[in-house]
Amino acid sequence: MSKRIDVSDLNVYYSDFLAVADVSMTIEERSVTALIGPSGCGKSTFLRTLNRMHEVIPGARVEGKAVMDGQDLYASDVDPVEVRRQVGMVFQRPNPFPTMSIAENVLAGVKLNNRRISKGDASDLVESSLQGANLWTEVKDRLDRPGSSLSGGQQQRLCIARAIAVKPDVLLMDEPCSALDPISTLAIEDLMAELKSEYTIVIVTHNMQQAARVSDRTAFFNIAGTGKPGRLIEMDETSTMFSSPNVQATEDYISGRFG
Amino acid sequence: MAVLSPPKVGGRPDQQEPRARRSKGGLAGRLFEYLSVGAGLLILVTLAAVAGFLVLRAWPALTASPEELQEISWFGSSTFLGYVGPLIFGTLLASLLALLIAVPLAVGIALFISHYAPRRLAQSLGYVIDLLAAIPSVVYGLWGALWLAPTLDPAFRWMTDFLGWIPLFEGYQPPAKNVLTASIVLAVMILPIITAVAREVFLQAPRLHEEAALALGATRWEMVRMAVLPFGRSGVISASMLGLGRALGETMAVLMILSPGFLYSFFLLKPGQHQSIAANIASKFPEASGLSVSALIATGLALFVITLAVNMFARWIISRRSEFSGAN
């Protein structure tokens, strides 16, 4: 199920403005890849190009290649809707559908892919997905309550359950813990460690310790100044990146001596 | 207001007595409080005054004996209920038909403006729709009677020929001064308000939820169904009720288009079957005096009660699933 992504010479534009320039990287399967860097350096933008969510913004476009399992995500015959069904995403703020119950939230993506699902299969899938997101024991007695009745951390795990219910190949996480308290953050981090045995995970984070804790490989993005494009500075094993990075800027950023 | 701490004025040190500060800083606040409470009360007082007037003036007709009522020349019934019943039926039928036509159309237009159309087209389309609201109802009446009725004639002929086995469409007689024509005109009249409210609600659908749907691999239509329509549901219901309120009370257009009748009839294409309360009052009022005025006012009271009930029903629908509304 899990797949690797090879990105080569990727440029992201918002209309004429070059937001991210010249990114080439390999995202390994069954591992956690962390994207770190200062605000505005294009890491979130880059993350969104991996499931073509940047196209939601009018005028956004991409040059270059992102090849997943031999298939270029940007080939002309590829439907972005199909890409998003294979590359799931978890957002910065928990966003369960407020008009749906917990169970309906989990099944939301599945109902899009495959409209007919038997009741038994559906409840099995709800259970396995919620278990996969470490949420089952907390919500099993109130599956028909609205998703918005949960706490922030639970809502975020519900969103993870919703994303993994469609069995994606890759899971993108855009600062998934930035709106959560430390205990919920820990729960999500533990979950990532479990999920990487099955999924390719890419996470954007502002929290250096988090990147060090959860990721196998880390990519550092930086920006030369306002109006300049963000660039990938370097990418390596997380342990290497945090102990002996090759580039001075990486070390400055990681050690807090930024700029 | 005591719970709110008063705004600090002039950056004075905190040594001052709290009570003194409160009265000083709270003057504008208190003035605003009186104004807003007064405005709120004014609505209640107005409503009570209208209700009181209606009940007071309708009372003679409501309590009159059958003999007295039969002295009114156009009163084709011996009881008040017998008279107002077909009117209520006609009013509701015309308004609900109008709603049935207008709501899907309005939701479609609102979605097109909020989620499909390029920005510039969306804006100008919005203006055009709003412009429909600026046309006086008497103009709609002229348009309906002089242009729409003859234009619909062939369509109605076809309907009664080929769909006549459905009782609804049986027995069309030209000219098309029937309840369906009136409903179509009403639908056009209530389209702007429903569209405008629905558009505003759809535009407020949280981007977060739209992106959640898209990231799950939803197409644009699926995204609209998952994130926009459920969010806008209560707004669309309130919009429809606003439209229904206008359709229920619409006088001039119905008066000019509909050939009146006082029957409980589902023949949508036959003339002389239905009449709405408002149009009936307008047509009878100039020659009414004494008890007949009371009778007309009593039908007005009935309309008032219906409108109130419709609004309460709408509120109830909205509150039923408020937990899932996204407001919490």
Q: How helical, in percent, are the residues of chain B?
A: over 70%
pLDDT under 50 segments of chain B (min length 5)?
A: 1-18
Radius of gyration of chain B: 26 Å
Distance between the termini of chain B: 25 Å
Helix run count of chain A: 10
CATH class of chain B: Mainly Alpha
CATH architecture field of chain B: Orthogonal Bundle
Oligomer category: heterodimer
Structural class of chain B: mainly alpha
How does the overall form of chain A come out from the CA principal axes? globular
CATH architecture of chain A: 3-Layer(aba) Sandwich
Rg of chain A over CA atoms, rounded to whole Å, is: 18 Å
The overall pLDDT average of chain B reads 85
Euclidean distance between termini CA atoms of chain A: 41 Å
- Domain count of chain B: the total is 1
Strand content of chain A: 25-35%
CATH homologous superfamily heading of chain B = MetI-like
Subcellular location (chain B): Cell membrane
GO molecular function (chain B): phosphate transmembrane transporter activity
InterPro entries (chain B): MetI-like, MetI-like_sf, Phosphate_PstC, Phosphate_Transport_Permease
Domain ABC transmembrane type-1 (chain B): 88-314
Task: Please tell me about this protein's structure.
Chain A has 259 residues and is of the alpha/beta class. Chain A contains ten helices and ten strands. The model of chain A has no long low-confidence stretch (mean pLDDT 88). Chain B is mainly α and 328 residues long. Chain B has a single domain (64-324), classed as MetI-like fold, CATH 1.10.3720. Chain B contains eleven helices and no strands. Chain B has helices spanning 18-63, 66-70, 80-116, 119-132, 137-162, 179-203, 207-215, 220-249, 252-257, 277-284, 291-320. Residues 1-18 of chain B have low confidence and may be disordered. Chain A binds chain B through residues 51, 53, 56, 81-82, 84-85, 88-89, 91, 93, 95-101, 108-109, 112-113, 146, 148-149, 159, 162-163, 166, and chain B through 206, 208-219, 222, 226-227, 230-231, 233, 321, 323-326, 328.
